[in-house]
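Structure first, sequence second, as always.
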């Protein structure tokens, strides 16, 4: 079952997909304007989710938030409930950082978060899902407000659970979490041009050492590792989903020396860029 809301004036769009046999997004193969954040709930048994060509275990009764540039597909899409929305539909970044489009569940971690639901939270989100379906069928002048309110409620529930499961309670600090979230967001916006921690530290009015200490406190990857892995991820995406040459990709990602890019890529992956493309693209299209 699929529901969709589109606001013509702002091009705000919200989609709810329930237990469809086909549910995926190959971001680089299809419409690069498909700028949707996704919240996917595996309502059934454990399965695999492929994100940017890498398989992960997706536990039953768990939720994963996915950002706009990620490609993904599910082993058992018929078990998935997915909420998808663009910034024009829902983005309260200016006044509510915690549950915005750049909030904790989307940019609070450099890795994928699989958020487990206990029975009480399963019932809570099940009840919320019924109200979502009802509101999609109610066309009036407050439909937009109601859908946005329900989505915010969903994000609040997931954010609370994510913090409980991914952040040690004894060191929970909103100001330090904001540093991590803002750093991840800055890297997402500038990684093609800026490859040093010094640049991002300056943007945050912090020292590079302070950033390293904060990330270590929460058990995150180092700030430099986040930059390098974001560059590597984008290089892999471009190799798998486009026909750009290694030289074109190197320049697109801000490397002045294409040979340095290729050598660094092989050092991190064990493959030269062209060999990686040949090996991984076949797997993506078979999945």
């Amino acid at each position: 079952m699929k529901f969709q809301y589109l606001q013509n004036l702002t091009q705000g769009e919200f989609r709810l997909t329930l237990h469809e046999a086909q549910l995926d997004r190959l971001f680089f193969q299809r419409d690069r304007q498909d700028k949707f954040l996704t919240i996917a709930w595996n309502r059934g048994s454990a399965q695999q989710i492929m994100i940017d060509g890498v398989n992960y275990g997706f536990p039953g009764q768990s939720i994963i938030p996915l950002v706009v540039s990620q490609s993904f597909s599910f082993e058992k899409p018929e078990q998935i409930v997915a909420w998808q929305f663009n910034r024009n539909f829902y983005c309260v970044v200016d006044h509510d950082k915690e549950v915005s489009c750049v909030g904790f569940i989307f940019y609070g971690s450099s890795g994928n978060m699989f958020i487990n639901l206990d029975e009480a939270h399963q019932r809570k989100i099940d009840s919320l899902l019924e109200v979502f379906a009802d509101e999609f069928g109610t066309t009036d002048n407050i439909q937009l407000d109601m859908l946005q309110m329900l989505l915010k409620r969903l994000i609040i529930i997931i954010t609370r659970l994510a913090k409980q499961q991914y952040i040690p309670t004894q060191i929970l600090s909103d100001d330090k979490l904001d540093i991590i979230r803002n750093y991840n967001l800055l890297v997402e916006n500038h990684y093609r041009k800026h490859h040093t921690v010094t640049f991002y530290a300056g943007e945050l009015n912090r020292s590079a050492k302070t950033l390293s200490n904060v990330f270590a406190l929460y058990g995150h990857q180092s700030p430099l590792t986040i930059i390098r892995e974001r560059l590597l991820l984008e290089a892999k995406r471009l190799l798998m989903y486009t026909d750009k040459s290694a030289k074109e990709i190197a320049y697109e990602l801000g490397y002045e020396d294409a040979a340095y890019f290729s050598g660094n890529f092989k050092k991190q992956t064990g493959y030269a860029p062209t060999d990686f493309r040949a090996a991984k693209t076949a797997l993506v299209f078979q999945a």
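Margin note: The domain at 174-286 is CATH 1.10.10.60 (Arc Repressor Mutant, subunit A).
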